[in-house]
Amino acid sequence: MYLKILRLFNFKNFSEKNFTFSEKINCFVGNNGVGKTNVLDAIHYLSLTKSYLNYSDQNNIRFHESFFSVEGNFWNDTTEDTIRIVVQTGQKKVIKRNFKAYEKISDHIGKYPCVMISPYDRNLISEGSEFRRKFMDAMISQINSDYLHLILRYQKALAQRNALLKLFSANHYFDAISLEMYDSELIENGTKIHHIRKEFIASYVPKFSNFYSALSQGEEEVTIQYISDLEDKEPSSLLKENLEKDRAAAYTTRGIHKDDLIFKLFQYPIKKFGSQGQQKSFLVALKLAQLQTIKEYSSKSPILLMDDIFDKLDDHRVAQLVKLAHEEQFGQIFLSDTHNDRTEKIVQQISSDYLIFKL
Ligand SMILES: Nc1ncnc2c1ncn2[C@@H]1O[C@H](COP(=O)(O)OP(=O)(O)OP(=O)(O)O)[C@@H](O)[C@H]1O
């Protein structure tokens, strides 16, 4: 599966722009602010129906315009699919596959998978646990269609339980029976989520370690540890033991909504002790492992989007990344860089089948 044609209309800084791509490697080069990231983001839209960078669809409409459209033609051996996404001011987003609108947007997810490596990923290291949970949940959702429903059910019960705790606190009142209704939902779904996360991480981490080791040429030891309140406690005892604390705080203080992934370099938190290049290598390895996971489960080669990829990586690591791209037989690759000559020199080593788009 690969993206052959991309048509942008009023998408961010592009009024109208068409591209015809190589099946293998496509590079966008140009100065800061010319729209390199925006093209990668348009491809992300076609794959996952949303921007990687901007949660509001409306913000992606070109300034002073009333709608944008992004259209792509995906080729799969002999068949061709046209995906078209239109966002109009004040209206619901429309996504069509071969000119027919989807009933549910979720029906599109997974058909044309992609993985993005972006400078914004550094939030995964620098920010709070919710970023890492979202990353983990997004990865699992792409390979397990039931998982998202479990998460949604858990989140709904959690929000209701928290609202009730807040009400009790405001009114200096407590009713254990009504709280227990939500406890059972949290226990049932939380147990399943914990089990799935644990299993997933056990198979994901070795892939991640292999990629990091390849990038650093085996010189650095990295680990990812999954931590959860449910690791050594039954969810029912956890809720019981923390009831007084929850009442005082007026929210549910413990549970799988507090799970985290601990990223370490030589047993030290990479956030505090990793250099910028080491952190970038860590993020690249996380994403390549994600790509490999999707590939194994779906038997499709996801499109790899790499924004500003060579920045902060030394020549050895760039060479290793090139080697990986060559040996691992990734699918179609899109990358962006500010340096034309550097890009050309690097991609020539991966494949002779490449195109460079100067923006
Ligand atoms: N809704 C919008 N309408 C018009 N222009 C927009 C919109 N949103 C963003 N832009 C413009 O898009 C440009 C940024 O594009 P992008 O982030 O793709 O640049 P880039 O080439 O990747 O730059 P860098 O090398 O700095 O990463 C900016 O000039 C910004 O003003």
Brief summary of the model shown:
By secondary structure, the chain is of the alpha/beta class. Helices cover 45% and strands 22% of the residues. The strands form 3 sheets. It has a 6-stranded antiparallel beta sheet with strand order 2-1-4-5-6-7, covered by helices on one side. A 5-stranded parallel beta sheet has the order 8-12-13-3-14, sandwiched between helices.
Question: Can you walk me through this structure?
Answer:
The chain is α/β, with parallel strands linked by helices. The protein has 2 domains: 1-113 and 300-359, Rossmann fold; 122-299, Up-down Bundle (Glutathione S-transferase Yfyf (Class Pi), Chain A, domain 2), CATH 1.20.1050. Helix content is 45%, strand content 22%. The strands form 3 sheets. It has a 6-stranded antiparallel beta sheet, covered by helices on one side. Strands 8-12-13-3-14 form a 5-stranded parallel beta sheet, with helices on both faces. The protein has a 3-stranded antiparallel beta sheet with strand order 9-10-11. Strand 6 and strand 7 (100-101) form a beta hairpin. Helix 4 (147-171) packs across helix 7 (243-249) and helix 10 (315-327) crosses helix 11. It is globular and about 70 Å long. Bound molecules: adenosine-5'-triphosphate. Residues 12-13, 30, 32-38, 59-63, 308, 336, 338 line the site of adenosine-5'-triphosphate.
What are the main properties of this structure?
359 residues, alpha/beta, Rossmann fold, Glutathione S-transferase Yfyf (Class Pi), Chain A, domain 2, 2 domains, six-stranded antiparallel sheet, five-stranded parallel sheet, 11 helices, 14 strands, 45% helix, binds adenosine-5'-triphosphate
